[in-house]
Amino acid sequence: MIVLGLESSCDETAAAVVTADGTILSNVVLSQVEEHAPFGGVVPEIAARAHITQMDRLVDQAMREANITFSDLDGVAATAGPGLIGGVLVGLMTAKAIATVADIPLIGVNHLEGHALTVRMTDGITFPYLLLLVSGGHSQILVVEGVGKFRRLGTTIDDAVGEAFDKTAKMLGLGFPGGPAVEKAAAKGDADRFSLPRPMSGRPGCDFSFSGLKTAVRQALENLGDTVTEQDKCDLAASFQKAAVDSLLNRLKQALKTYRDEYPDGTSLVIAGGVAANRYLREKLDELSHKKGYTLVVPPPKLCTDNGAMIAWAGIERLRLGLTDELDLAAKARWPLDPDAEPAPFAGY
Ligand code: ATP
Ligand code: MG
Ligand code: FE
C-alpha cells in the first residue's frame, strides 16, 4: 500500500510518499520561515498564497523522489483541519484533484492525528499509549486508544506551549521560529537565575496554562532595564525553558496517575508535535518515564514538526480500516481529536 500525504495547515508546505510498512519513500518540506520572519509570526494570507505557489511543485518532487507515478498510489491523504483555513484548502483541493484523476480514495486527515500516530510509523508501537501533544497551536494530554479514538485528559486553558516559546523568542529578539532559537540560547544560560512561575503546578487535573509564564518573562525583561546583555537573554531563555518543561512534567505526572489506573497494560509514553523536538524536554521526560516504569517514545525531530509523512501515514492507517472520504469533504478550521471533551476550562488566577 502506497499513500501520498499533503500538509498545508500552517506555515509548512509538505508532500510525502509512505508505504504500509512505514517506509518513507520521500518527504519534502518547504518552510515559509523567511516569508513570515519580518512579522515575527505566521500571517494567514501570506501562508495561503505561499502554499498555492508551491504545492504542485512539491507534489511533483515527492513523486519523483519516490520514483512512482499517480497510478502506483493506493490513496491520497491531505490535512483537512484543524489549521489556517486558506492553507488547509490548498492541500485538500490538490488531494481531491489527484484522487479524481488517478481514481483513488481520498483520505482527509486531522493534522493532530498525524502528529499523534507518527510513532506507530517510526517505532511500530501499539495502542493504547499516553500522548503529550505539544505544538504551536496545541498542548494536550491524550490517551490514544486507536485510529480516530482519543480521550483527552488535559488541555491548555490559554496559550499553547509552542506559542509561549515563540513569544518568548520574540520578546528576547531571538528570531523566528522561536522554539529552536530559545533552545539554542538556553543552552548557554543559567536556568536558575530568574524565578518564574510554574502555572497550574500542584492543582488537581491535568490542564495547562502558559500565558502567566509569558507575562512573567516580559516582566523579568522589563526589570532588567535598558541594557540587556546577550547573557541576560540566554539566562532568561534557560529560566523560561525550565519553567515551561517543569510545568509540562507536573501535569503529565497527574495524567500518569489516571492512566495507570484506567489502562494498567499501557507501557508507552509518547511526545509529539513541534515542541517534542526540544532536547531538554526529551531528557526530562525520559527521566520521568524511567522512574514511573514507562518507555518514552519520541519521533525524530524532523518528524515532530509539520511534515507530509505523518499525514501520509495517518492516511495509511485510515485506508487500512476503510475510513476514506467523499470528494465533497469540507476543510475545517477547528476539529478536536476528542469531540466529547469539555471545552478548556478557565481556572482563574
Ligand atoms: P499545530 O500542530 O498545533 O497545528 P503547528 O503545526 O504550527 O501547530 P508544529 O509545526 O507541530 O506546530 O510545531 C511548531 C511549534 O514547535 C512552534 O511553536 C515552535 O516554536 C515549536 N518548536 C519547534 N522546535 C522546537 C524546539 N526545539 N524547542 C521548543 N519548541 C520548538
Ligand atoms: Mg510550522
Ligand atoms: Fe503541527
Automatic annotation (TrEMBL):
Domain Gcp-like: start-end pairs: 23-313
Catalytic activity reported: L-threonylcarbamoyladenylate + adenosine(37) in tRNA = N(6)-L-threonylcarbamoyladenosine(37) in tRNA + AMP + H(+)
Subcellular location(s) of the protein: Cytoplasm
Binding site for Fe cation: H111, H115, D306
Predominant localisation class: cytoplasm
EC number from the UniProt entry: 2.3.1.234
Cofactor binding remark: Binds 1 Fe(2+) ion per subunit.
Cofactor: Fe(2+)
Keywords for this protein: Acyltransferase, Cytoplasm, Iron, Metal-binding, Transferase, tRNA processing
Binding site for substrate: L133, V134, S135, G136, G137, D166, G179, E183, N278
Source organism, top-level taxon: Bacteria
Record carries keyword Acyltransferase: yes
Family: Belongs to the KAE1 / TsaD family.
PANTHER family for this protein: TRNA N6-ADENOSINE THREONYLCARBAMOYLTRANSFERASE, TRNA N6-ADENOSINE THREONYLCARBAMOYLTRANSFERASE, MITOCHONDRIAL
Record function comment: Required for the formation of a threonylcarbamoyl group on adenosine at position 37 (t(6)A37) in tRNAs that read codons beginning with adenine. Is involved in the transfer of the threonylcarbamoyl moiety of threonylcarbamoyl-AMP (TC-AMP) to the N6 group of A37, together with TsaE and TsaB. TsaD likely plays a direct catalytic role in this reaction.
HAMAP family registered for this protein in UniProt: TsaD (MF_01445)
Full protein name: tRNA N6-adenosine threonylcarbamoyltransferase
The organism of origin for this protein: Sneathiella chinensis
High-level lineage: Bacteria, Pseudomonadati, Pseudomonadota, Alphaproteobacteria, Sneathiellales
